[in-house]
């Protein structure tokens, strides 16, 4: 019985490593534009392109050891004609609390689910991307499950050039 459990564990462990290496091997860096990195990935013959950035500043009262890495993503959808904005907070958002997406004082509410947040429509995504193209600073304000207010600040320097990279690659 112990042998069977160990054998099963080893099979699962090595399968996970092989699968994750396969997925990451398919993701390629297109380029870095200041604070933004552009990537393309292929899974099941479907090509997806996205840009991402990490915060330049984080404030709030929380245990930094209990938080994962936060990111903002903009994914190219429909072959370059549309974009989807999303947030990965690195913590679970508190239920029924808004996530605020603030570009230079222009605030929009995002819809949180667990540790992610999205806008409610493609129309709002278009507005967010246009604001990010023109803006200097993006601030994400969210409340964690324990009730801690956390503020992540992102530089928008390089955003427009990185967006052009994914639009060209995925069009």
Describe this protein's structure.
It is built from three helices and eleven strands. A hairpin with a 4-residue loop joins strand 5 (71-77) and strand 6 (82-88). Residues 1-24 have low confidence and may be disordered. The protein has 171 residues and is an alpha+beta fold. The chain has a single domain, classed as Invasion associated locus B (IalB) protein (Immunoglobulin-like), CATH 2.60.40. The protein has an eleven-stranded antiparallel beta sheet, sandwiched between helices. It has helices at 2-26, 122-134, 159-169, and strands at 28-33, 36-43, 46-53, 57-59, 71-77, 82-88, 99-103, 106-113, 116-118, 137-143, 149-155.
Task: State the secondary-structure class.
Answer: alpha+beta
Q: Helical residue percent? A: 25-40%
Count of alpha and pi helical runs: 3
Q: What's the helix-strand series?
A: HEEEEEEEEEHEEH
CATH topology description: Immunoglobulin-like
In total, the number of domains comes to 1
Superfamily (CATH H level) name: Invasion associated locus B (IalB) protein
Largest sheet: 11 strands, antiparallel
Strand content: 35-45%
Taking the alpha carbons of the first and last residues, their distance comes to 54 Å
Which stretches are poorly predicted, pLDDT < 50 over at least 5 residues?
1-24
Shape descriptor: globular
Count of DSSP strands: 11
CATH domain class name = Mainly Beta
pLDDT averaged residue by residue: 86
Radius of gyration: 18 Å
């Amino acid at each position: 019985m112990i042998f069977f459990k160990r054998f099963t564990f080893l099979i699962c462990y090595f399968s996970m490593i092989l699968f994750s290496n396969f997925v990451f091997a398919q993701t390629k860096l297109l380029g870095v534009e200041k604070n933004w990195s552009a990537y393309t990935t292929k899974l099941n013959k479907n090509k997806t392109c996205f840009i991402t950035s990490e915060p330049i500043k984080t404030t709030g009262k929380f245990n930094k050891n209990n938080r994962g890495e936060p990111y903002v993503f903009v994914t190219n959808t429909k072959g370059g004609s549309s974009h989807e904005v999303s947030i990965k907070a690195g913590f679970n958002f508190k239920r029924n609390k808004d996530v605020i997406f603030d570009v230079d004082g222009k605030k929009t509410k995002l819809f949180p689910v667990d540790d992610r947040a999205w806008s409610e429509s493609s129309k709002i995504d278009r507005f967010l991307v246009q604001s990010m193209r023109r803006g200097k600073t993006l601030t994400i304000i969210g409340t964690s499950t324990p009730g801690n207010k956390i503020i992540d600040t992102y530089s928008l320097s390089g955003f427009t050039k990185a967006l052009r990279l994914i639009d060209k690659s995925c069009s």
